[in-house]
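Slack export, channel: ligand-projects

TW: morning all. Re-posting the request from yesterday since it got buried. We need the structure predicted with the small molecule present, not the apo form. The ligand is 2-acetamido-2-deoxy-beta-D-glucopyranose; the SMILES is in the block with the sequence. No rush, but it would help planning for next week.
GE: picking it up
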Amino acid sequence: MMSHVLTHLLCLVCACMARPQPVSPRSMRMEQNSPATGSLAGRVVLPCHFSIMSVSTMPTTPPPAPGPLLLSDALHAIPSPGEELRIKWTKLVAGGEKVVLVAQGGVVKVGQDYKSRVSVASHPLSVGDASLLMVQLRASDAGLYRCEVMHGMEDTQDTVSLNVTGVVFHYRAHTNRYSLDFPGAVAACRNVGATIATPEQLTVAFEDGFDQCDAGWLADQSVRYPITDPRPGCAGNLGSRPGVRTYGIRDTFEKYDVYCYVDKLEGEVFFPSSVKDKLTLQQARDECEKHDAVLASPGQLFAAWRAGLNRCDYSWLSDGSVRYPVTVPRPQCGGGLLGVRTLYKYENQTGFPEPSDRFGLFCFKGETETRLSRHA
Ligand SMILES: *[C@@H]1O[C@H](CO)[C@@H](O)[C@H](O)[C@H]1NC(C)=O
Ligand SMILES: *[C@@H]1O[C@H](CO)[C@@H](O)[C@H](O)[C@H]1NC(C)=O
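GE: finished. pasting the full token output, ligand included:
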């Protein structure tokens, strides 16, 4: 009751002060919205905070009276029939924009790629919050978004950038295809600087275009594989439809490949520029040591690839595998496809090269080591 009275008093005060000016009595303002980062298959809030205030009184407005009720709260509380709030989120893409969500008067429309994945607060006006909650994050969600808030004749907007970290990758042991039992699969991911992927992470990777016709263990002890381009031999339980094929939950002693997940790189992967010749596995290990580093793990290489590393040289990694990352498509490097290329020993895509074979090398230096050596 008391706060109602106070609200009305405050409104009267500001309405009077606004009157002498011919400009619109109220104005919307966007708060500073910071960039956002989320992990693959996780959730993120794209911030968009706005306030509605009286412009003309701004310079002379006394500080709000002490107490729980702020002047801006009072203004938000003004019922203004016919002045519905409209929130529009778009993604800025090459050559235009894509509608993510439009919300007005309780009606919410969502763009095709964002179905069941985005929402805004149900009473954005009263809280000055038009932030967008996005779930089941895909790598392709990364980019620049615009938040627009329209209220009556007023309109304010801001852009927010979103980064999405993390990548799912297929891993095969050096011995043969389908040679990992469940404990072995968990250990294999750990040994290559990653964790065993969850079904949610694999699903999101599939949405981003991941296609791999090899059954692999996942964290829930299920075995699945992602197919975006259906073809004979990769039908699984879905026939000719794209999707993640599943064998269901399996006994731990059965043997498959594995899908691993790595989040953002906590350090640096590099190809030492001093190295001119191809090296054996042992020489590569020694070379990294000269740089106060170690041979990079496959997990680290995938994370570096995700962050943009591009190098068209088959190179040694810590597990004795040989790979290279492509982020810039070129016909002579991985046939114009993007991703991490793996060199297998046999045509049937099994086996690692012999340790005495000669290749390049990727070294890894952790964040602390990097910082220490820069300051040394
Ligand atoms: C997002 O990624 C870009 C490029 O990788 C980087 O420059 C930027 O600092 C990142 N932003 C955030 C908020 O992490
Ligand atoms: C692939 O080829 C190698 C060498 O010929 C063989 O040892 C291995 O069993 C084969 N693996 C599969 C899955 O066919």
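GE: first-pass observations. The chain has a mean pLDDT of 85. The helical segments are 2-18, 71-76, 124-127, 182-191, 199-207, 281-290, 298-306, 367-375.
TW: perfect, thank you
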